Amino acid sequence: MTDDVYNELFEVMKNRRGPYTGIDIPEFYSLVRELLRPEEAQVNNAMPRKPSTAKDIANELGRPEKDIVTTLEKMADRGLCKTFLKDGVRYYQGEPFMPGIFEYQFMTGKTTERDKKVARLIHAYKKAFDTARGEIRMTFPTTRVITVDKTIDAGNTVHTYDQVSTYIDKNDTIGVGTCFCRHAASLVGEDTHDMPMEVCMWFGNMAAYAIERLGARQMTKQEAREILKKAEDAGLVHMSRNTTEDIDFICNCDRWHCEVISGVLKQSKPALFFNSGFQPRFDPNLCTACETCIERCPPEALAMGDNDIPQVNLDRCFGCAVCATGCPSDAIVMEAKPDFPAPPKDPKELITSLKASFTKQAR
Fold this sequence. Notes:
Layout: H1 2-15, H2 26-35, H3 38-46, H4 54-61, H5 65-77, E1 82-86, E2 89-93, H6 97-105, H7 113-133, E3 143-145, H8 164-169, E4 174-178, H9 180-187, E5 198-203, H10 204-213, E6 217-219, H11 221-234, E7 237-241, E8 249-253, H12 259-264, E9 278-282, H13 292-296, E10 302-304, E11 310-312, H14 322-326, E12 332-336, H15 347-362
Antiparallel strand pairs: 1-2, 3-7, 4-5, 4-6, 5-8, 7-8, 9-12, 10-11
């Protein structure tokens, strides 16, 4: 039964998609055997991606509901599935590795020996996965940058989805946890460049789950804005799903460890797959040629040009405004890129766009 349940788990995690799915390699089985006990793997395999009740899952397995509830609760407490209340009913939801289970393991920032072991297993799995899969050819952006809206020139139209404050204002439940990418890197001995750790933000049901079960800290709206300011000062990039609605997280990412940024920087034109729709404009009368913007730029899209004014490579520029927020002379403002398309409305529309772009590229 043990081997069968983990073999089935491979297929389940493969179908849940994400940047790291199930793949039939030794590192996968080493990782999942550490994360999930056999009975938990069995429940995980019966759990659909859409929210379900314990009764539904118990019926699928032909097991008593009370036994399944006990297992589901233990899994939810360990970040192996998501749970939330809706209209007084408890729902559970199977999660992919990323975004999902991997991040949930390190939300509290703990550094126990088991945390280090799990970090090593995840690191080994991702490395082996990348080798087995080969280079990814991106076809459509699944994530997007949200520029720092206070740097946008007053003459530009700013949509609500272009403003980080939109997602803070519309959600009553906001949580913050430890950055998975940087914390996992620190657990395996990598340099995190003294970047802030407690900057991953969650909203709505996802925030409620993270606060209730995973040790995330609940924040007021003002505290959330202070976290964003700290991230901006450190030169981190605001990032979320490439949709205008149904956003339940904002990551604040660095150039060295973020899975998304490191992935897009492997593309010949990174800005095609990770962008805010804005670009920097430099005021030659204010610029002092200090090169602070060049040093801060996450995709290294800036270089000093003629007359000691920085020039931007728009094939690499994310439009994140890290250059503008760090400019000591306020010589940089962000302006809208001409004809930049609006993001998909929701995850369903995003998947449709992904499929259409993949089909187009395959022809």
